[in-house]
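Q&A FORM
Asked by: J.P.
Topic: structure of D-alanyl-D-alanine carboxypeptidase (Penicillin-binding protein 5/6)

PROVIDED:
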Amino acid sequence: MSFSTCLAVRGIHGSSDSRVCRRVALLTAFVVLVAFLFIVAMPVRALAADANDGENGPHPAEAQAWEIIDQDGNVLSSHNAQAQMPMASITKIMTAMVALDSGISLDTPVTIPDGLSFQADAQLCGFKPGETPTLRDLIMGMLVYSGNDAASYIAIAVAGSEDAFAELMNAKAAQLGMTNTHFVNPHGLEADGHYSCAHDLAIMGRYALENYPLIAQAVTTHSVTLTVGGQPKTFQSTDDLMGSYAGLCGIKTGAVESGTTFLGSSRRHGIQTFSCVLGCKTHEGRFSDTAILMDWVYDSYMKGVTFTRKSWPIRLSTYSLGFWGKVVTTSQSDARGRYLPGSRITYSCTLAKSTLADANGPTGYASWYQNGRPLAYATYSTGRVITNVSSFNVFALPLFYDMTELTAA
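REPLIED BY: S.T.
REPLY: Here is the structure written out as tokens.
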């Protein structure tokens, strides 16, 4: 059923005050026409807006490079996104994916080898040679606490050496289309030839959360308790945005001498974003810049629209208990949603077809969608009985637009 069909009603008979009622009806028609033209025109104008870096885009304060994409891989904003830069511990997301691809059971004990050394300031879980944490323990310690030693032990357990494991990482990167990425170690400590770019890492983050449930769980875990040196030890997440940014979905921090990094994801209004900031100057800057990107998407790039209001009449029907009265169908509440520019908005609407209606009763519902994602929902019902209604059919004129025709400009 089209929107105009849903809104059309049959002509009705008025009373002796029909002249006054006709004027009221004409005024009502004009108000409804203006309201619907405004609602339909808003998205059309917004669809042509430039969402990329520039005056209309976000402005992170520290990041030298960034990109933010949606769940379909569409780039919403980017800056220097192809520049090759150190990715730091974001590396560990690829390490986790390759380890999980290996098929080794997560409950397999991994014997901690002797002889490995790490730079003095490297963050370590502190596993001792001869200890046997499970592969799951190592992955959790690596992703939650960013333990560099856990990453190395995973690489050796899976491929026999860090060099052999790096080859698997590069093969996985090629599979994902990460053309500006090269791995030489499993942890992300700075090394010649170890680099990526914001675009590649945003792609990797999206793929990881969509295809690896353990990674999605780990990157939203506030702390993990592992046995280290024969004693339980609790490790806190390095993600400062967790618990402070509404809708955050992870995923990985990073810090090297050349700058701090953050690969992030969040979900609001049914839209999930994946962002990456590289080359930030401070510990806090990577988080504040990520919040700037995400806020821009939800508050500026996505456009708000009211599809219907509680006060807007949808249909007039003859009162079922007496032809002297009419009942008006309206939404039980305002229906408002947010949409992404550039994609078609569709809807479905179901209304009772009878021309007779009871007062204060349900009559139907409507839903609005974008690419299958629900935008808003409205439940329609009748109100009280009204009298002295004009026979002029305020809905008979072509006042209403078919929302299914709303497409990108």
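FOLLOW-UP: Residues 1-51, 396-409 have pLDDT under 50 and may be disordered.
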